[in-house]
Amino acid sequence: MLDTILRQQDDYFFAGDERLASILAWIRNYADMLRIYGREARLHARLSSACVELLRAGGLFEVVN
User: Fold this and answer.
1) What domain of life (predicted)?
2) What residues does each domain of the chain span?
3) At what angle do helices 18-36 and 40-57 cross, to 10 degrees?
4) pTM of the entire structure?
5) For residue 44, what pLDDT is reported?
């Protein structure tokens, strides 16, 4: 789920939603950092859940479904 969301970052940026693109860029960078440090599985799941909650709170969850 997280990877699907992050792939849409450029779409949001080019659609003019720079705020959401910025949030997704931060999340992408954080996810990359987790992968580098080898704690991907557990923390990636937490980050994915947090990302979905962030989008749901902003009324954007439907965009990624």
Assistant:
1) Bacteria
2) 2-64
3) 170
4) 0.42
5) 66
